[in-house]
Automatic annotation (TrEMBL):
Keyword Hydrolase: yes
UniProt xrefs under PROSITE patterns: TATD_1, TATD_2, TATD_3
Organism name: Halobacillus andaensis
InterPro entries, per database record: DNase_TatD-rel_CS, Metal_Hydrolase, TatD-like, TatD/YcfH-like
Residues that bind a divalent metal cation 1: 6, 8, 92, 203
KW Ubl conjugation (keyword) present: no
Keywords for this protein: Hydrolase, Metal-binding
Pfam families in alphabetical order: TatD_DNase (PF01026)
Record-listed a divalent metal cation 2 binding positions: 128, 153
Protein name in UniProt: Hydrolase TatD
GO cellular component terms, A-Z: cytosol
Amino acid sequence: MLFDTHVHLNADQFADDLEETITRAREAGVKYMTVVGFDRKTIPLAIQIAEDNDHIYAAVGWHPVDAIDMTDEDLQWIEELSSHPKVVAIGEMGLDYHWDKSPADVQKEVFRKQIQLAKKVNMPIIIHNREATDDIVEILKEENAAEVGGIMHCYSGPVETAKECIDMNFMISLGGPVTFKNAKLPKEVAEAIDLDHLLVETDCPFLAPHPNRGKRNEPAYVKLVAEQVAEIKGLTYEEVSKRTTENALQFFRIKS
């Protein structure tokens, strides 16, 4: 039994075969999923998919790449949606310095507002980080994000930063890159971080794990991530799948 903690089944790439994708996931042992909505288009779709399917949940937030588009009304909308029975987290949110659509100062402001909102509604947060680790950690500390905790989604940073985040009540979620031959840091994190602090995810349709790298990713492939973590840690696949699922259920406050 697996919990894919970060999927984008609300993406256009799944528009033609959503039901079949979910069926393949179930057949691969993926019982639970969190569909992450991050803008005006994907948030309603995330909630709709969660409403239509048992054991599928939603997260609602605003992606940093599109921070410049977020209005006060959007923030209010996210707050209202946070009370939906299948919404389990606020996010994804964070900083992304790879793309230049939204200036860094705008991204930081929107990030802080969403952390403050999560604290107001007492919900954990999901963090998107691309080339912005130092600023993300600084803002999490300044905003006392430890009060609600969260997930470092598709974590690719060093072990030391992972431990710093764990100290702030964050889980470390590993995705497809942990299976890449040249991905040194995720493998080091998988080895060094105790299983109690780890989650698994696909971030589908992106970052498909080996041997499907370069293809469309999907939730069924989270099994490949869990198998790789088990191999790195010298544990059985069954132990990793069981523990990471228990971790996710506890984190999202879901009664199994």
